Amino acid sequence: MDFVLLIHGDETLWDAFTEAERDKMAEAHRQFGRSMVESGVIVKYGCGLTRSHAAKLVRPDGPAVAGPYAVGREQIGGIWVIEVQSADEAESWARKMPYAPGDIVEVRPCDPA
User: Fold this and answer.
1) What is the pLDDT along the chain (113 residues), one digit of tens a residue?
2) How far is CA 58 from CA 45, 49, 55, 68, 75, in A?
3) Which of 5, 21, 89, 103 has its CA 20 to 30 A from that of 50?
4) What are the domain boundaries of the chain?
């Protein structure tokens, strides 16, 4: 079963990290990905995202609008798409993920349709 792990966080906290802290978090995520693969998880995709100000909201009946979809400070900062046996296993992996201060991870099953 496929699940997406959506990393929600406050971009202002991430922006306050030093370059060394950002590099350390990026390496922690690379190691996290390796540990999933070594444990038999099929990692279909993973990436960090650019800041939300680079986002465009597209609707079928209007122009694209710049900016994040959410009004609050929490934005999606990265994603992992994994194939595991159950929601419990996906949750377990989400708990092992490297977290920046204030981050939360949304675990959502992918629609097989």
Assistant:
1) 999 999 999 888 888 999 999 999 999 999 999 999 999 999 999 999 988 888 887 878 888 777 665 556 678 899 999 999 999 999 999 999 999 888 999 999 998 87
2) 23, 17, 10, 11, 17
3) 89
4) 2-109
